[in-house]
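Methods — Computational structure assignment.
A single polypeptide chain was analysed. Its primary sequence is given first, followed by the predicted tertiary structure written as structure tokens.
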Amino acid sequence: MTEAFENLLRNMSLYLAGLRSAPQIVRDIDDFVSDDHVYQLSENDGKAVHVLQDSTALYVHDPVMRLEHNGYFGDHELQGLIREFLTTYKAT
């Protein structure tokens, strides 16, 4: 596990604890991928981060905007995605 990945997992934990905002954690995940940290992970871990990034791309903070497209989701669903991801990677 790389230091950058550990930092991402720590930021996810902070998000679930209410110490980091939803837009920040979505940005953290995007930055992790765009900074090419994902390619320093194993193939399976890298794929999992890419899937998470794709999923979190549908997060929309504004409830009015979420009504415009039924694929968008809010905080509750984002917390579930992050919690599920952390459950997998905190155990390793």
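Note: Residues 15 and 24 are 8 Å apart (CA to CA).
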